[in-house]
Design goal:
This protein has 332 residues and is an alpha+beta fold. The protein folds into two domains: 184 residues, no CATH class; 129 residues. 57% of the residues lie in helices and 17% in strands. It contains ten helices and seven strands. The protein has a four-stranded antiparallel β-sheet with strand order 5-6-1-7. The chain has a three-stranded antiparallel β-sheet with strand order 2-4-3, with no helix packed on it. Helix 7 packs antiparallel against helix 8.
């Protein structure tokens, strides 16, 4: 594990954007209605949407509520309160399809990828993943199948907008003196988008970049520029080490969950499958040291639980495994 050349991280940097059911929502400003009229509007819409769900449901519908928000607005000494009504004027099944798609996509990512970076801003969260080269063809085929489902959903949305049900919803809104065109805006669910960038991080790559790109002009540059070149090399190596450690830590979190299950001694056949998946993942992204010194011994322990101490040299499974991972990180 002491040879840096063995610690190579490679694959595709993956960023995924999945549409949500919020794209089906509409918002109505009902501030001009009295409380009784507003309550009646909500009731009528709920009843109509329940009828629609029963008509379109593939299984029993549970019913749904409408989102009502109240906002206090002050302009000088004048205080007003707005009533804002948010709902989806489509069958619940349409929203459920999008929820299922989102769940399936992120379950697949969790199975096929390592998390390299988590970016958060308020309620917004976006992750950057590492997809092993070996997993990319099947992953992209999966995304194609998902997008076929979205295309089918868009056809259903278009068909529903021409139905009497959609006209009924619009007429209810108009009957309360509100703008019925609020539900007329075009709705088209975008495909799941995938951005992939090939990545290979190897200490020799950095040396190659610095030496081969700059050796021809090295004698001509100033001492200050030479110092800058060395600084560039240091920063590239620093970035390589950061990404490698993130990949290792992403694997470590999954390995630790596996270790807990081994210690509990339950469903070891499933544990074995997960270890084999993680070992393949480690191998595919270039972390051979994790595959050979951590996951292969864990697999032997699952197959021979009574031999754990002799296989790992310790009775403390968790401590030994994490010690090996920490040792690998120190060699980077």
């Amino acid at each position: 594990m002491s040879e840096k050349s063995k610690v190579v991280v490679e694959g595709f940097l993956l960023s995924v954007h999945v549409p949500t059911e919020e794209r089906l929502s509409v918002v109505i400003d009902a501030s001009g209605l009295s409380w009784d009229s507003y309550r009646n509007l909500v009731t009528e819409l709920q009843d109509k949407l329940a009828e629609i769900d029963e008509e379109y449901a593939l299984r029993d519908a549970r019913g749904r509520g409408l989102g009502a928000r109240y906002r206090r607005v002050s302009v000088g000494k004048v205080v007003s309160r707005r009533r804002v009504l948010s709902f989806i004027p489509y069958p619940s099944r349409f929203a459920n399809i999008l929820r299922t798609i989102r769940r399936d996509v992120y379950e697949r990512i969790g199975r096929d990828c390592l998390v390299l970076q988590v970016m958060s801003s308020g309620r917004f969260r976006h992750n950057l993943y590492l997809l092993p080269f070996a997993n990319a063809p099947s992953f992209m085929a999966f995304i194609n199948r998902i997008n076929e489902k979205i295309n089918s959903l868009n056809k259903e949305i278009l068909g529903f907008r021409g139905s009497r049900w959609y006209a009924d919803i619009k007429n209810i809104i108009i009957s309360y003196g509100l703008d019925g065109t609020v539900i007329d805006g075009e709705v088209r669910i975008p495909s799941v988008s995938v951005d992939v960038t090939p990545l290979q991080l190897d200490p020799t790559v950095i040396e190659k970049v610095v030496e081969e790109r700059y050796k021809k002009v090295f004698e001509k540059i100033s001492a200050e520029e030479k110092a800058g070149l060395e600084r560039l090399r240091i920063e590239l190596e620093k970035k390589r080490r950061e990404v490698v450690i993130k990949a290792i830590e992403s694997l470590r979190s999954e390995i630790n969950e596996v270790v807990k299950r081994i210690i509990a001694g339950k469903r070891l056949k499933d544990v074995k499958k997960d270890i084999e998946r993680l070992r393949k993942m480690a191998h595919d992204v270039g972390l051979e040291a994790i595959a050979t010194t951590v996951l292969t011994p864990l697999l032997e322990v699952v197959e021979n639980p009574m031999m754990a101490a002799s296989i790992l040299g310790s009775n403390d499974l968790s401590k030994e495994i994490n010690g090996r991972i920490d040792g690998l990180i120190r060699t980077l």
